[in-house]
Specification:
alpha/beta; UDP N-Acetylglucosamine Acyltransferase, domain 1; 7-stranded mixed sheet; 5-stranded parallel sheet; 2 helices; 13% helix; globular
Length: 182
């Protein structure tokens, strides 16, 4: 559309591949509600096992706190000794790869999907996220579709990454800008 208007009645997600049959997604949503999104199940080893049973690749010593949302675990790869804080959301419409020794703090949002604002039908666009070894995604920060956080990068409190975070860079703001070197 040339006038910039959107007609959501024409939106279709037919081209989006959810990666698993409906019944698997339904079973995951039930499992997630009980063991991940609730606050009453704090045990790490069973969470790792459940994620693996749904196709996630999970390393050793991964700590997943309560009230964490993972959209599609079959699109998630997490290395060794990763911490995922309370209320983090791994919105894995596309692949999310988190290397070893990464901290994803409380309330962080890793968003792999967005919509094409230039399209009158608001088409869905998805791009993978990669968080490299030793990076820290601080509390309440957002990592957008297609972003790579290179080794040792820090995205500070409440910041929004829409582009690559360079190695050992410390980033702040919305959009996040490099403010220092680690």
């Amino acid at each position: 559309m040339t006038d910039g208007s959107v007609d959501l009645s024409k939106y279709s997600s037919k081209g989006f591949d959810r990666g698993r049959p409906f019944w698997v997604e339904w079973l995951w949503r039930l499992t997630s509600a009980i063991f991940f999104q609730s606050g009453w199940f704090p045990f790490y080893a069973p969470k790792r096992m459940l994620l693996r049973s749904f196709g996630a690749r999970i390393g050793r010593g991964v700590l997943i706190k309560p009230r964490v949302t993972i959209t599609f675990p079959w699109r998630v790869e997490i290395g060794d000794h990763v911490w995922i804080g309370e209320e983090a959301w791994l919105d894995s419409l596309a692949a999310i790869r988190i290397d070893s020794h990464v901290c994803i703090s409380q309330g962080a949002y890793l968003c792999t999907g967005n919509h094409d604002y230039k399209s009158g039908t608001f088409d869905l666009r998805c791009s993978p996220i990669h968080i490299s070894k030793g990076a820290w995604i601080a509390a309440k920060s957002v990592v957008g579709p297609g972003v790579t956080a290179e080794e040792g990068a820090i995205l500070s409190l409440g910041s929004v990454a829409t582009d690559r975070l360079e190695e050992k860079g410390i980033y702040q703001g919305n959009p996040a800008r490099r403010i220092a070197t680690r």
